[in-house]
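Please decode residue identities from the backbone states below.
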């Protein structure tokens, strides 16, 4: 249950499946006994467990997913979908699911390889680091979120478990190096340059890039996939490592205009001079310091410099795969 007693989407889905889904499968499709995976995963805040009163104005309601192999889907998918549509729409006082314009195809009877391909662009577990590099964090989060209620055949879970909990280590380190490079470029370098020029929009964009890369960095250090941008910050509350960076970024996001701190700063001011009057600069440096401490704790760097770019080469040297190590530091 969520706040005020409202039922969360995952809990509702499980109850709805236990009440109606199991019986439907046993009665109508006995030939598929032991072959159907059931659960709720994929797109939607309810699959992350983040749904609330605001998000329930669309794509919320009694529903679940049934995942079939391609062979079973081609034989029985249409008939099963018809039986699924006959199930009661309302359940436990909650109205039937009202789908948004682009919310169709997320629940009901689904083909296992098509489910993964539609989210990741691949039907199965990547076979090489090069293939892993192509997969976006948010897509991997979407493909592996939610819950599997049961999977007697194990095919759906085989792929799911092969994608968890995070990228292979060389790919994870490569992405950490890329995040470190972007954090340094945007927050520790370009923010100051933009402020010196009076380019407020550029400065805000630099901070936005810094925050996005910082959050991704924290997830990677936790060996977790970063969710879709709307839920990136929210999901940090569940992380064991550096979750406090989320609170620090809240301060950065709410910071007032720091233009007065740059009055009198000239174009020829030394680039790496830290402007201690700018509160955003102080926050950026604090975040970078915490990240560097964790990088050292994980044995990924021994550098003492607080400028994150100084750590990128140390990170790249930790990568064993020659192809991944040959990529540009900001790639990933």
């Amino acid at each position: 249950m969520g706040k005020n007693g409202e039922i969360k989407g995952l809990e509702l889905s499980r109850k709805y499946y236990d009440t109606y889904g199991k019986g439907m499968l046993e009665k109508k499709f006995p030939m598929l006994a032991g072959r159907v995976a059931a659960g709720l995963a994929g797109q939607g805040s309810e699959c992350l467990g983040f749904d609330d009163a605001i998000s329930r104005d669309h794509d919320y309601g009694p529903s679940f997913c049934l995942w079939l192999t391609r062979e079973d889907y081609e034989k029985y998918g249409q008939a099963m979908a018809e039986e699924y549509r006959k199930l009661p729409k309302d359940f436990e006082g909650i109205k039937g699911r009202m789908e948004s314009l682009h919310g169709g195809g997320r629940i009901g009877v689904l083909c296992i390889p098509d489910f993964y391909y539609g989210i990741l662009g691949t039907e199965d577990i990547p076979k090489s680091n090069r293939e892993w590099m192509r997969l976006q964090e948010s897509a991997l989060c979407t493909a592996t979120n939610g819950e599997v209620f049961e999977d007697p055949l194990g095919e759906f879970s085989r792929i799911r478990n092969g994608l968890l909990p995070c990228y292979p280590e060389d790919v994870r380190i490569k992405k950490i190096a890329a995040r470190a490079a972007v954090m340094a470029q945007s927050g520790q370098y370009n923010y100051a340059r933009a402020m010196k020029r009076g380019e407020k929009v550029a400065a805000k964009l630099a901070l936005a890039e810094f925050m996005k890369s910082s959050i991704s960095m924290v997830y990677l250090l936790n060996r977790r996939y970063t969710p879709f941008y709307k839920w990136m910050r929210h999901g940090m509350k569940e992380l064991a490592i550096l979750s406090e960076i989320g609170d620090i970024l809240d301060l950065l996001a709410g910071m007032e205009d720091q233009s007065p701190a740059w009055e009198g700063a000239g174009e020829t001011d030394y680039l790496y001079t830290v402007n201690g009057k700018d509160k955003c600069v102080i926050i950026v440096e604090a975040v970078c310091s915490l990240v560097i401490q964790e990088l050292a704790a994980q044995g990924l760097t021994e550098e003492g410099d607080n400028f994150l770019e100084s750590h990128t080469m140390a990170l790249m040297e930790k990568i064993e795969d020659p192809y991944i190590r040959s990529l540009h530091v900001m790639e990933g």
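Observation: The chain is about 50% helix and 5% strand.
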